[in-house]
Amino acid sequence: MKDNILEISNYKQRIYRLKKGYTIVNGTISEYPVIVHSYVGEIKKEVSIFSDFFYYKSTNRAINLLNDSMNTITKKYGRLLVMFLNYVFYGCEKPISRIEDITIEMGQQFLQRYAKGLEGRKQSKSEYTVSGGEMTLTYFFYWLLHNYPVKLKYIKLSNFEWEEYYSINEATKFREEKVKRKRLNSIFCIDADDEYVTRDKVVTGSLYMVLLLLDIAKKHDKMLRLGIALGAFAGLRKGEVCQMSKSRIKTFEPYVNVQFETTIDTTYNQILRSDGLMTGYIKTKKVRPVYEPFLPMLNDIYNDHLDMLNEDGLNNQYGALFIDSRGNAMMDYTYLERFKKLTDIMRDILRVAALDDEQESAKEAYSLLQGVAFTPHSLRYFFSQYICERENNPIVLQRYRVDKQIATQMGYILESRKAKERIKELQEELHKDAVEHMKNVEKLFDQEVRKYKGDRVW
């Protein structure tokens, strides 16, 4: 097994490695994983107490590594844990000498480096891989708190949060049965879509580009049109888009009343497939308010999406809003693949349109795409910038982005009359801008395939 060893300095340091152990039970040789440690320049190796983590089962049985195979433990927990131990004991800026001095911030810093490719394999990691790393270290910290013989100084029981969820028990003979279970939430916040994982340099979108992409989706992949709108007008990440179900969205009706704020319920992760696979993950589990000026656009696109699901008979039994070609709730990586195809079309259209002297918006958009990627997170950039340009209070942006780490927790409620006037003004401004941009977008398509209801422009 390949050792996970960081570069070693010339003074005495402890090195952790992952090894195989062997035991004979009833005449059968079985393998089991162990963590060993030694010191630089010494041959002698000792089995580390941290090896006990691989045999941990929590009292509520929500965490149970005993059922995992040697291969699963090695890939899912062992390799990352060894990298983390080497990091905190001598690889980080301020290494510790005793595990009881460990902090959540150390885990956060390690996972950020891991996501970037600065730890482990020298390549940036996917959101799925980073999420798995978060849970490995969350379980390890929880195990340390409950099983390590010395009390941890900076890790408390209050740092951990359990959530209840329902999964499908397919073992029942005559019907599918929902089973209530518990799981531990991650104590870290590594956003693989934001600043840590950057395979390509990502560009923000303009309103023109967002409207063009919505129009391309309407023609080439209707299923993704609402997802694009949720990214651009609600700030959802791709994993959060793929978590969307009918139960999370009550309405996008553009009424203005501070007593009936329009929100999206992103307080939990939900299984939307009978095979138990998670379609995506919600990073920050809070109720997400919708920026009111975007409501008219979201309302029309959402209603169109529901009509499409009904007409095509794609009503998922768990209420999933995004369905793949096999009729299952769409996985986030499938969403990303289909999104990329739409952005490739957009890039080709803009390349041709940029040659037209009259298409200034197309020229500007095409120049923005030179050498950079347009990803689902570009829509979140657009969402943030659009609000920033129209609101002076940074707390407002934090509120609508639903950032996990917010310095000031506050409920931002405008005075009723002032709020209504301001929101109406912003909605009219957005509609006016959209009309202007759509005049240019329409030039890029055959008029016969563009059919709008009334004076709608999105």
Helix content: 25-40%
Structural class: alpha+beta
Uncertain stretches: 1-12, 192-200, 405-420, 446-458
Mean pLDDT: 77
Give the overall form.
elongated
Termini separation comes to 55 Å
Can you count the beta strands?
A: 7
Proportion of residues in β-strands: 5-15%
Order of helices and strands: EEEHHHEEHHHEEHHHHHH
> Which strand order do you get reading across the main beta sheet?
1-2-3
Main pleated sheet: 3 strands, antiparallel
Helix and strand layout, with pairings?
Elements: E1 14-25, E2 28-39, E3 46-47, H1 70-91, H2 104-116, H3 127-147, E4 162-169, E5 177-184, H4 207-220, H5 225-234, H6 238-241, E6 263-266, E7 286-289, H7 295-311, H8 332-353, H9 360-368, H10 376-388, H11 394-401, H12 416-442
Antiparallel strand pairs: 1-2, 2-3, 4-5, 6-7
Helix pairs in contact: 1-3, 2-3, 4-5, 4-8, 4-12, 5-7, 5-10, 8-9
Explain how this protein is built:
With 458 residues, this protein is an alpha+beta fold. The protein has helices at residues 70-91, 104-116, 127-147, 207-220, 225-234, 238-241, 295-311, 332-353, 360-368, 376-388, 394-401, 416-442; strands at residues 14-25, 28-39, 46-47, 162-169, 177-184, 263-266, 286-289. The strands form three sheets. A three-stranded antiparallel sheet has the order 1-2-3. Strand 1 (14-25) and strand 2 (28-39) form a beta hairpin. Helix 4 (207-220) crosses helix 8, helix 5 (225-234) packs parallel to helix 10 and helix 8 packs across helix 9. The longest helix is centred in the C-terminal third of the chain and has 27 residues, at 416-442.
